[in-house]
Design brief:
The protein is an alpha+beta fold. The protein has three domains: 218 residues, DD-peptidase/beta-lactamase superfamily (Beta-lactamase); 117 residues, no CATH class; 125 residues, Lipocalin. The protein contains 16 helices and 23 strands. The chain has a nine-stranded antiparallel β-sheet with strand order 18-17-16-15-23-22-21-20-19. Strands 1, 2, 3, 4, 11, 12, 13 and 14 form an eight-stranded antiparallel β-sheet that branches. A hairpin with a 6-residue loop joins β21 and β22. α2 packs parallel to α7 and α2 crosses α8. The longest helix has 15 residues. The chain starts with a strand and ends in a 5-residue tail after the last helix. The N terminus and C terminus are likely disordered.
C-alpha cells in the first residue's frame, strides 16, 4: 500500500514525517479506503499533506490536496462560525429564542410548559429537537426524516411544514440533530438577508481563501469531486449521490487544502494569511463547553465536540454522508490540528477519519498511542454502588444514539474481576460487554470505554445524584430498580422495531 506524500517540509518539531506516514499506514490496514487525504496544520510551519489512493476507481484519478470531498457534518462548525459572526455584529443573541430570528418556519414545542429554545441550545444539540423530524419518520422516512439524504432539493419551509417539533424541555438533554443546524442556517439567511450558500461564500470561504469550497456543487467543484464508495465483501461499490435536506448540517464540499486554511484560521484566533472571519475571543468561546451535564465530562461546545484524553482537552468533529467520511481534531493550546477526508464509508460512520485523526493528534502531541490509562489502579470497593441497570433519560424518542444504539439502556456489572458496561440492545452481537477502564486516579466514578467497532473511546462518569446517573460522554442514563431490568424479559418489541429500522437505514449526518 503506497502513501503518496505532498508534504511541504520535514518537521523540525513534534513527530517526523516518517512517523506520521507510519501512523497513516497503520490506519489504512485497519480501515481500507479508495482514497484518503490528510492535512496536518501546525502554527508557524507549512501545512503537511499526505494523500493515498484514488478519487475515482474507474479513471484511476489520484487523490490530491485539491480533490473535492463531501465533508458531511464538519459543515456544522462552519454554520456555527456564521452564527458567531452575526453575534459579533450584535444582530444575534445566543441566549435569545431562536424563533425571534426564524422567518421561514418556527420551532414548535410539544408542551405549552416548555421554555423557548435559544440559539445556544441549537448550537449544542440541546434544543429538544429530535434526530428525526417527527416520530413517523422513524419507520416511514428514516433517511429523509433524519436530514441525511434526499432524492431532490426541498426548501426548508416545505420540509418543515407545520414547524420543527421540540419534544423535550430545551437545555436539559443532548440529542444530536441535523435539524437544529438546519434551523441555524435558516437564521443566518433570515437575519443577513442573503441566501445561506452566498453568505458562506462571501463571509467565510472567500475571506479565508477557500476558493474550492461551497455549499452548492458548481461545475468547477464537480470537476474535482471524488466518487463516493462503500466497502462491501466484494470490494468497493460507488454510491448514488444524494442531496442533503439539511444543508447547514452537512452540505459543504471542500478540499484538503481549503480545510487546512480553515483549521489555520481556527488555530490563529479566526484569521489566516488570506483574511479574518472571527475575533479571537469568539473562537475561544466556540471551543468551550456550553452544555455540560457534569464537570467531569467534556460536554458540548458551539458546533464542536470537546474530548478529554489524559487530562488534555481536544476539540473534535466528525462528518458522515454516504460514500464520504471526515474528521477534524484540534489542540488549540499546542497550535496543532488535523483533518482527514475519505471517499469511502457508509452512514454507519465506520471508517478511517476519526480514528486516524485521533492517532495523528496523539503522535503530534507526544501522547501515548491509546486513550486508555492502564496505569490507574481499579477501585473495586466502589463497584457495588455502581452496578445495576441504567435506562435512557426521558427525552426525544427520535434520538438515535441513546434510544437505538443502547436499546433499553445499559447494564453495569462485574465480570472476571472487572467492571463492565453492556448495552441492552435487542440485536444479538451488536455490542459486547465493554470494560470500564479507570480514567482518573483521584475519582473512582470516572472511566473510559473502548468501542472497537469504531476505534474510538468514550469517557464514562457515574454521578451521585438522586437517582444516580451514568453519563456516556453527553448521553445520560438514569439508574432504575434492578427488578425492572429488561434483560430478564427482553428488550421489548418497540426497541426491536426501532433498531431494525435503523439497521436498514443507518444515518448520522
Amino acid at each position: 500500500m503506497t502513501i503518496i506524500g505532498s508534504s511541504r517540509h520535514e518537521s523540525a518539531t513534534g513527530s517526523s514525517e516518517g512517523g506520521l506516514r507510519d501512523t497513516i499506514t497503520a490506519g489504512l490496514r485497519r480501515w481500507p479506503s479508495a482514497g484518503v487525504a490528510v492535512a496536518v496544520v501546525r502554527c508557524g510551519s507549512p501545512v503537511q499533506y499526505f494523500c493515498h489512493g484514488v478519487a475515482d476507481v474507474a479513471t484511476g484519478r489520484l487523490v490530491g490536496e485539491d480533490t473535492v470531498f463531501r465533508i458531511g457534518s464538519l459543515t456544522k462548525t462552519v454554520t456555527a462560525v456564521a452564527i458567531m459572526q452575526l453575534r459579533e455584529q450584535g444582530v444575534v443573541d445566543l441566549d435569545a429564542p431562536a424563533n425571534d430570528y426564524l422567518r421561514a418556519f418556527q420551532l414548535v414545542p410539544d408542551s405549552a410548559g416548555f421554555t423557548q429554545a435559544t440559539v445556544r441550545h441549537l448550537l449544542t444539540h440541546t434544543a429538544g429537537v429530535g434526530y428525526w423530524r417527527r416520530r413517523s419518520d422513524l419507520l416511514l422516512h428514516p433517511g429523509v426524516g433524519a436530514g441525511v439524504t434526499a432524492r431532490s432539493v426541498v426548501q426548508l419551509p416545505e420540509y418543515y411544514r407545520g414547524g420543527l417539533p421540540i419534544d423535550v424541555e430545551p437545555g436539559t438533554r443532548w440529542a444530536y440533530s441535523n435539524h437544529g443546524f438546519a434551523a441555524l442556517g435558516q437564521i443566518v439567511e433570515d437575519v443577513s438577508g442573503e441566501p445561506f450558500d452566498q453568505y458562506l461564500r462571501d463571509h467565510i470561504f472567500g475571506p479565508l481563501g477557500m476558493n474550492h469550497t461551497g455549499l452548492v456543487l458548481s461545475q468547477e467543484l464537480r470537476a474535482g469531486l471524488a466518487t463516493g464508495y462503500t466497502l462491501r465483501r466484494r470490494g468497493l461499490r460507488p454510491v448514488t449521490p444524494r442531496e442533503v435536506p439539511t444543508p447547514a448540517g452537512g452540505g459543504v464540499y471542500s478540499t484538503p487544502a481549503d480545510m487546512a486554511r480553515y483549521l489555520t484560521a481556527l488555530l490563529r484566533g479566526g484569521a489566516n494569511e488570506h483574511g479574518r472571519v472571527l475575533n479571537a475571543d469568539s473562537v475561544q468561546a466556540m471551543f468551550r463547553p456550553h452544555f455540560q451535564p457534569d464537570p467531569r465530562v467534556p460536554g458540548m461546545a458551539l458546533g464542536f465536540e470537546p474530548h478529554i484524553e489524559r487530562g488534555r482537552v481536544l476539540i473534535c468533529k466528525g462528518g458522515t454522508i454516504s460514500g464520504f467520511l471526515s474528521a477534524l481534531e484540534l489542540a488549540p493550546e499546542a497550535g496543532v490540528a488535523v483533518v482527514v477526508l475519505t471517499n469511502t464509508g457508509g452512514l454507519d460512520n465506520r471508517g478511517i477519519p476519526e480514528p486516524l485523526a485521533a492517532a495523528l493528534t496523539r503522535r503530534l502531541l507526544g501522547m501515548p498511542g491509546s486513550a486508555v490509562r492502564d496505569e490507574i489502579a481499579p477501585h473495586p470497593e466502589a463497584w457495588d454502588t455502581l452496578r445495576g441497570w441504567y435506562a435512557p433519560d426521558a427525552g426525544p424518542v427520535t434520538n438515535l444514539f441513546a434510544r437505538v444504539g443502547f436499546g433499553a439502556g445499559a447494564e453495569v456489572a462485574v465480570r472476571h474481576r472487572r467492571l463492565v458496561l453492556k448495552p441492552l440492545t435487542p440485536v444479538p452481537g451488536l455490542w459486547e460487554a465493554m470494560v470500564l477502564h479507570p480514567d482518573d486516579p483521584g475519582d473512582p466514578r470516572v472511566y473510559r470505554v473502548e468501542l472497537p467497532q469504531y476505534d474510538k473511546t468514550w469517557r464514562v462518569v457515574f454521578t451521585d445524584d438522586t437517582p444516580p446517573r451514568l453519563l456516556l460522554d453527553v448521553m445520560s442514563f438514569q439508574k432504575r430498580p434492578g427488578w425492572r431490568n429488561p434483560r430478564r424479559w427482553g428488550a421489548g418489541l418497540t426497541a426491536a422495531a426501532v433498531t431494525g429500522a435503523v439497521i436498514r437505514h443507518r444515518g448520522k449526518g
